[in-house]
Sequence to fold (527 residues):
Amino acid sequence: MLILHCPYCGVMADETELHGGGEAHLTRHGPGSSDEEFHDYLFAKENPRGVHFERWRHVNGCGKWFHAARDTATLEVFGTYSAQTTEPPQAIRDAITARRPGWTWRHLAGSAK
Amino acid sequence: MRRYSAFAIAREALRYHAGWEKAWASPEPRRKYDVVIVGAGGHGLATAFYLGRNFGITNVAVIEKGWLGGGNTGRNTTIIRSNYLQDPSAAIYEKSRSLYETMSQDLNYNVMYSPRGVMMLAQTQAEVRGYLRTAQANTLQGVTTRFIDPPEVKKLVPIINLDGPRYPVLGALWQDRAGTARHDAVAWGYARACSDMGMDIIQQCEVTAVRREGGRVVGVDTSRGAIDCDKLGIVVAGNSGVMAERAGFRLPIDSVALQALVSEPIKPCMDVVVMANTVHGYMSQSDKGEMVIGGGADGYNNYTQRGSFHHIEETVRALVETFPMVSRLKMLRQWGGIVDMTGDRSPILSKTPVEGVFINCGWGTGGFKATPGSGWAMAELMAKGHSPLAEAYTLDRFREGRFIDESVAAGVAH
Fold:
């Protein structure tokens, strides 16, 4: 079972307390965007085999949204962090780089060690 | 290839079974093929088979990272049905179901197709209305289904509890020509027939890159060397996103784990397939006597071929109410597969932004039933550039808003 640390209430929450909210750090293109941008925002999924950033909601707990960095090929959790950000904090990126040197995700890239 | 027959069994019985041939060859990859199919699961092998059978294209390699039929082909609950709501779905799933009826003869391989009937329980008023609508849509589509009342449900499935306190059985959508087949045999039968046509099935060979020149595919790099091809078919289910990335485009697909489990074998007690979509559970009894149980998918991206235990608990808890005898069963095995989910829960059978690359994916939680129909349509698409059965399933439908919405129509168990 997946266990994530909720950065708001501090609980180590079981998967049954949580609800997955899909890919994180999307730019929500709307009016004024190009067709291509709008299409990619809606449909072009990252769906990586490896490092992934996701939104989760502590639905049967404090009810808050947060972000998690995970490996979809091993189920390893690199860390969780506030949803009030457009990019993962450096500490999370460093934690991933320590375990997966050379990782990439969308425009984000891990620094080579 | 020697044909399998009752006579062959008798012949081999008299000579210590020394005369059986290998069902398919395991050749070294050649430098160049007309068509390369990535993925030797049911859908990939069916695509290769119909390329040869329907279009005479036999210079084909089917490349598989693991072993033949070791992905979702060997991990499903073997249910075959075609009672979908939307017209494009009914067309391809009914084609598929009809191909299953003659598959053992077509392939000279016993796939144990058993048209035992599939029953989808209506346990809420919304489901009753939904299935009445589906039954009427199916009538217009030429798919034989009907809505049956609780007494008929009880007659067909004596072990069912109609009066579950939480989810009583209010009726069911019944398709009596639906059923099950032996999933491994489907892959093995296609593999044997493909090998017999001179196609190469290359296992333990991972495609690491798709080589392109001027927006057109020219070949693939694999763990066993480079292979050139004119056309490339990507038929890799859960790994579709990974392969698409190697070919240079992205897909509207999420890969998630779906689980199933089987009980210890027991005496025959249920000779139909029962699906209960409201409570995320479906069950049938295999020829060995095991109760085969499928549950819901996990809610997050996952490539590990194992799912979360609480989904098993939810599934079994729900089934215990509908089938009280399940509470006395010991479970033997549990496993997971990685399913490729699209937003509208319908597949993608399409050309791609790379010329010469075709993709067949997005079958999600319901791919096994579609195996022959999917291969039939994909082969036509690859050979001719268009296929009536695949017409609605293009990658462009997301951009253009032409969704084929089965997520509402089919419920969860798809």
